[in-house]
């Protein structure tokens, strides 16, 4: 609820006014249990920061984070430990998240040791079982990261997130660094694991095809704000926000289904975002009101929220 992350920007001159970078600027959304919620937007829009706040790697400047209806902050002892087990993250770069000097088995066993789960034989059994679940032979436990391909490393990254039997996983650009053929294998693995284990994902990616393929609902971010949330697939409505429409129409695979809207200009700086609706300098539907008043994110249909003064026009012109 109204989640924000602001960073102070160092002054370049003595008398300069202190400014802030609004990485995430007050976003509210809900992810249902067992749901895959995709988060898209151009680089620097605040998707990763949002994911990192959800797993508490980054502390929010403002707003409230609720997990199963209860505030995430202020937990201690057993409750905090439980939360750390329940919520995991898979990073983009499987290379940097693995310790090159340690075997895969060690990497996977360590969180179990930290959380005091099982004795040695039990932990070994869990490691072997988890490796199998991500499609790797249990013998991989004896290997080192440099002996693995990119896809195998990302499978290990997923195994590391799964080992504590979490409920909710943030997946941040997890397939972006992989070859296209490997990407689809990893995506299908993530889908299968989600189904089998009843997991909930926040799936972050700049790749719209990937997000549309895997998600139940998609949130679109622009300059730290959530501009649209919509349901994917036959039951879902078409996106209505001019930014979402421009973003999706630039993707070759889905372009055939949607009218092309060219996205003009560059993303402005999150230190000095435009007044009113931050998208107005690039928006084909901008009016005078857009320059002065920021639109609120509001429900426009079942599972569909849009933040735009003129979204109805977007609907008509389609
Ligand atoms: Fe465009 Fe105005 Fe809608 Fe912003 S509020 S997206 S500028 S039409
Ligand atoms: Mg990122």
Automatic annotation (TrEMBL):
Residues 1-248 form the ABC transporter domain. Keywords: ATP-binding, Nucleotide-binding, Transport. It holds the Pfam family ABC_tran. This is Peptide/nickel transport system ATP-binding protein/oligopeptide transport system ATP-binding protein. One of its GO terms (biological process) is transmembrane transport. SUPFAM superfamilies: P-loop containing nucleoside triphosphate hydrolases (SSF52540). One of its GO terms (molecular function) is ATP binding. Belongs to the ABC transporter superfamily. It comes from the Bacteria.
